[in-house]
C-alpha cells in the first residue's frame, strides 16, 4: 500500500489530482484509514505489535502529501506570475470611468476666458437669496408687476425671519458686490438660477452669467463694444451683425436685448450672418436707483450690466436642440457633442 500511495502522490500533476489521492488513502473510506480501523478489532498484543508500524505508515503518507502539495502550489504560483505579468508600458484603457467637466461648466470657462481678457474677475453669491437682494435693491418696487414675470420659488419663512427665495437671476450678486467693493468694478458672475418653468427649452434650474462694470464715464458705447467683441470670440466668427433692441428691466435704464443675425442649415445654426434675428442676452446701463441703493453716487460713477443664459448659449454653439439632457448625467450625450472623451 505504501509504495502505491507514494507513487500516486508523486504522479499527481495538480492539486486536484493530489486531493483525490489523499481521499483514496486517508479519507474516511481510504485504504490507510481502513487499516487503522482494523486495529480496533485486534487483540491487545497484536495491536501493540502493529500499531506503531501503521501509525508510522500513516505519517509517511501524510508527509508525502504535504510535501507534494507545497511543490504543486509553488508551481501554480510560478505559472500565474508568468501569465499575469502586468505590462507597465501599455497605455491605460479608456473606459466608461473616464469623466469630464459638464458642458455647462466648459462653456462657462470659455465665457470666463473671453471676459478675463477684458479684465473681468469672477464673483459669486448664494443660491438662496432674500427678497431685498433679488428684487427690492434692484429697483423692483414691492407689488411691481415685473416681479410676477420671474416665476419665483418662495421658501417657507423661518420664524422671525423674512421669507427667502431661490434667486431668479444672478443680478443680486451685482448688489452684493457694489455693497462690498469700491469702484472701479468689473465682475463676471456665474451661477445657478431658478424659475418655475419646465419644457424642452426651460428647466426650473438653469445657469446664467452676469456681467457688471462700474467706472467713471462708462456709457452705452462701452456696453455695445464689449458685448459685440464677446459674441465674436464666443461663436468664433470675424463679424457678427447685431442690434440692441429697447427692452425693460427695472435695474437698468436704458435697457436692451441684444439680437444677432443667424442662418439655419438643416439642424445647424450659424451665428453672425443670415436672414433672421435671435435674442441672446439682456443688458443696459445700471439704473441710478440701484447705484444709490448700493451706496454709489450716480453723479460720479456709471456702469453697465448684462445677463445671459449659459445653457442656451451652449445649445446654440454646439447644436444641442434639447435642454433636458443637460441634467440627466448621460456620458453618451456628453461624448456625442464632443464634451468628453
Ligand atoms: N437679470 C436679467 C434676467 O435674468 C438679465 C439682465 C442682467 C438684464 C443684467 C440686464 C442687466 O433676465
Automatic annotation (TrEMBL):
<dbReference type="InterPro" id="IPR004529">
    <property type="entry name" value="Phe-tRNA-synth_IIc_asu"/>
</dbReference>
<dbReference type="InterPro" id="IPR045864">
    <property type="entry name" value="aa-tRNA-synth_II/BPL/LPL"/>
</dbReference>
<keyword id="KW-0436">Ligase</keyword>
<comment type="subunit">
    <text>Tetramer of two alpha and two beta subunits.</text>
</comment>
<dbReference type="GO" id="GO:0005524">
    <property type="term" value="F:ATP binding"/>
</dbReference>
<keyword id="KW-0963">Cytoplasm</keyword>
<dbReference type="Pfam" id="PF01409">
    <property type="entry name" value="tRNA-synt_2d"/>
</dbReference>
<keyword id="KW-0460">Magnesium</keyword>
<keyword id="KW-0067">ATP-binding</keyword>
<dbReference type="InterPro" id="IPR002319">
    <property type="entry name" value="Phenylalanyl-tRNA_Synthase"/>
</dbReference>
<dbReference type="GO" id="GO:0006432">
    <property type="term" value="P:phenylalanyl-tRNA aminoacylation"/>
</dbReference>
<dbReference type="InterPro" id="IPR006195">
    <property type="entry name" value="aa-tRNA-synth_II"/>
</dbReference>
<dbReference type="InterPro" id="IPR022911">
    <property type="entry name" value="Phe_tRNA_ligase_alpha1_bac"/>
</dbReference>
<dbReference type="GO" id="GO:0004826">
    <property type="term" value="F:phenylalanine-tRNA ligase activity"/>
</dbReference>
<dbReference type="GO" id="GO:0000049">
    <property type="term" value="F:tRNA binding"/>
</dbReference>
<dbReference type="GO" id="GO:0000287">
    <property type="term" value="F:magnesium ion binding"/>
</dbReference>
<comment type="similarity">
    <text>Belongs to the class-II aminoacyl-tRNA synthetase family. Phe-tRNA synthetase alpha subunit type 1 subfamily.</text>
</comment>
<dbReference type="InterPro" id="IPR010978">
    <property type="entry name" value="tRNA-bd_arm"/>
</dbReference>
<dbReference type="GO" id="GO:0005737">
    <property type="term" value="C:cytoplasm"/>
</dbReference>
<keyword id="KW-0547">Nucleotide-binding</keyword>
<protein>
    <recommendedName>
        <fullName>Phenylalanine--tRNA ligase alpha subunit</fullName>
        <ecNumber>6.1.1.20</ecNumber>
    </recommendedName>
</protein>
<feature type="domain" description="Aminoacyl-transfer RNA synthetases class-II family profile">
    <location>
        <begin position="104"/>
        <end position="325"/>
    </location>
</feature>
<keyword id="KW-0030">Aminoacyl-tRNA synthetase</keyword>
<keyword id="KW-0479">Metal-binding</keyword>
<dbReference type="InterPro" id="IPR004188">
    <property type="entry name" value="Phe-tRNA_ligase_II_N"/>
</dbReference>
<dbReference type="Pfam" id="PF02912">
    <property type="entry name" value="Phe_tRNA-synt_N"/>
</dbReference>
<keyword id="KW-0648">Protein biosynthesis</keyword>
<feature type="binding site">
    <location>
        <position position="253"/>
    </location>
    <ligand>
        <name>Mg(2+)</name>
    </ligand>
</feature>
Amino acid at each position: 500500500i505504501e509504495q502505491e500511495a507514494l507513487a500516486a502522490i508523486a504522479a499527481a500533476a495538480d492539486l486536484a489530482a493530489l486531493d483525490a489521492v489523499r481521499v483514496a488513502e486517508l479519507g474516511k473510506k481510504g485504504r490507510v484509514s481502513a487499516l487503522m480501523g482494523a486495529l480496533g478489532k485486534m487483540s491487545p498484543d497484536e495491536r501493540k505489535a502493529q500499531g506503531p508500524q501503521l501509525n508510522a505508515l500513516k505519517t509517511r503518507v501524510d508527509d508525502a502529501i504535504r510535501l507534494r502539495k507545497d511543490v504543486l502550489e509553488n508551481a501554480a504560483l510560478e505559472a500565474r506570475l508568468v501569465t499575469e505579468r502586468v505590462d507597465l508600458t501599455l497605455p491605460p484603457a479608456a473606459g466608461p470611468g473616464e469623466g469630464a467637466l459638464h458642458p455647462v461648466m466648459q462653456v462657462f470657462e470659455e465665457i470666463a476666458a473671453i471676459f478675463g481678457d477684458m479684465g473681468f474677475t469672477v464673483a459669486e453669491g448664494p443660491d438662496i437669496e432674500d427678497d431685498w437682494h433679488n428684487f427690492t435693491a434692484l429697483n423692483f418696487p414691492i407689488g411691481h408687476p415685473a416681479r410676477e414675470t420671474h416665476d419665483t420659488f418662495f421658501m417657507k419663512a423661518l420664524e422671525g425671519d423674512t421669507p427667502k427665495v431661490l434667486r431668479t437671476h444672478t443680478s443680486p450678486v451685482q448688489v452684493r458686490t457694489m455693497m462690498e467693493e469700491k469702484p472701479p468694478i468689473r465682475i463676471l458672475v456665474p451661477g445657478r438660477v431658478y424659475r418655475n418653468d419646465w419644457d424642452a427649452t426651460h428647466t426650473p434650474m438653469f445657469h446664467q452669467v452676469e456681467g457688471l462694470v462700474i467706472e467713471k464715464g462708462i456709457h452705452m458705447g462701452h456696453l455695445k463694444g464689449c458685448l459685440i467683441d464677446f459674441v465674436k470670440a464666443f461663436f468664433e466668427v470675424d463679424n457678427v451683425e447685431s442690434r440692441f433692441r429697447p427692452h425693460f428691466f427695472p435695474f437698468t435704464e436704458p435697457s436692451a436685448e441684444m439680437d444677432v443675425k443667424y442662418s439655419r442649415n438643416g439642424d445647424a445654426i450659424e451665428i453672425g450672418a443670415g436672414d433672421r434675428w435671435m435674442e441672446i442676452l439682456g443688458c443696459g446701463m445700471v439704473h441710478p436707483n440701484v447705484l444709490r441703493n448700493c451706496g454709489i453716487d450716480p453723479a460720479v460713477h456709471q456702469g453697465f450690466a448684462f445677463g445671459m443664459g449659459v445653457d442656451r448659449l451652449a445649445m446654440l454653439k454646439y447644436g444641442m436642440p434639447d435642454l433636458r439632457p443637460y441634467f440627466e448625467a448621460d456620458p453618451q450625450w456628453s461624448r456625442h457633442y464632443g464634451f468628453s472623451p
